[in-house]
Amino acid sequence: MARKNPFASIMDNGDAPAERPVARDYTFKGASRSLISSIDEMAAQAGKLLEGETIIEVDPDLVDQSFANDRLNVDQEDYEADYAQVLESIRSSGQNSPALLRPHPQRPGRYMLVFGRLRWRAAKELGLKLRAVIKDISERDHVIAQGQENNARANTSFIEKALFAADIVQRKFDEDNATALAAIGVDRPTLSKMLSVASMPKDLLEAIGRAKAVGRDRWYELKLLLDKPGNVDTALALASSSDFHGMPSEARFDAIVAKLKASKPRRRAAQAPSKRSWAPSDGRVAAEMVASGKKFTIALKAKGTDAAAFGDYLSENLSELYEAFRREKRATTNGD
């Protein structure tokens, strides 16, 4: 059953067009059901933070950005298109839904933005006061509210949600990642895949960009491709080419995947064999020993028949030689 977004009442007509929640048909039993119940309770409690609160007008110059980054600093043209829509809406109709602020934890007299970034930016540009709800909340409630607001918008990409989830987990609000689950609104297996995807090289993620049309399964496919030897270097080489940056974000993603699928896996370099030689003082026979991995070979050379005769002698006395080797090895081990 789909969980109701507790922030929906103040998020419509906000930063970007709202996305209708997609119902998920998950079956939970035992510990999983308890986990989801606790997440629902956390989200509901965070939603109550806004119930009955008074909307006031705040000077946008007194507001700082959220401490939790939920955006890639690339593909600014996508953000500008969203911002232009919000700017025009506020210019013509005013700010219909408030932003959520909290008193700044380090800067008295200032506020920190929880959500409503584009509304805040538009108010600054238009010289208007920012209509907002101000609530003194914890950092954990902050990221839950920010994540829930992101989940209601259609313009948040999967990779941005994954990076936001990783940022929450790294802040160690809890040991079982319940805060991240509540903020992102996913089940534990999906969160695990998000964290795996978010662990890809930062340079590569920024080179690809938001890729809004690319969902979880395709991002996870790319992660598995990058786990193969040599593929990270191949992907970064393509991402650094001049033609790559001229493509749309989704095309950049597709180009990386196609390149890696076409590349032959790089074999690990084999370790060079170790060689030694031996010869007695009379020089009548010579031996060359080669150690390669789990194999060890001895080749005997001599003038006349000494090589064959010495080889027969070694073969006939291998049992005694091996026992002597084992005794010496045990003595050395016990001595240590």
Automatic annotation (TrEMBL):
<dbReference type="InterPro" id="IPR050336">
    <property type="entry name" value="Chromosome_partition/occlusion"/>
</dbReference>
<protein>
    <submittedName>
        <fullName>Chromosome partitioning protein ParB</fullName>
    </submittedName>
</protein>
<dbReference type="InterPro" id="IPR037972">
    <property type="entry name" value="RepB_N"/>
</dbReference>
<feature type="domain" description="ParB-like N-terminal">
    <location>
        <begin position="56"/>
        <end position="151"/>
    </location>
</feature>
<dbReference type="InterPro" id="IPR011111">
    <property type="entry name" value="Plasmid_RepB"/>
</dbReference>
<dbReference type="Pfam" id="PF02195">
    <property type="entry name" value="ParB_N"/>
</dbReference>
<dbReference type="InterPro" id="IPR017819">
    <property type="entry name" value="Plasmid_partition_RepB"/>
</dbReference>
<dbReference type="GO" id="GO:0005694">
    <property type="term" value="C:chromosome"/>
</dbReference>
<comment type="similarity">
    <text>Belongs to the ParB family.</text>
</comment>
<dbReference type="InterPro" id="IPR036086">
    <property type="entry name" value="ParB/Sulfiredoxin_sf"/>
</dbReference>
<dbReference type="GO" id="GO:0007059">
    <property type="term" value="P:chromosome segregation"/>
</dbReference>
<dbReference type="InterPro" id="IPR004437">
    <property type="entry name" value="ParB/RepB/Spo0J"/>
</dbReference>
<dbReference type="Pfam" id="PF07506">
    <property type="entry name" value="RepB"/>
</dbReference>
<dbReference type="InterPro" id="IPR003115">
    <property type="entry name" value="ParB_N"/>
</dbReference>
<dbReference type="GO" id="GO:0003677">
    <property type="term" value="F:DNA binding"/>
</dbReference>
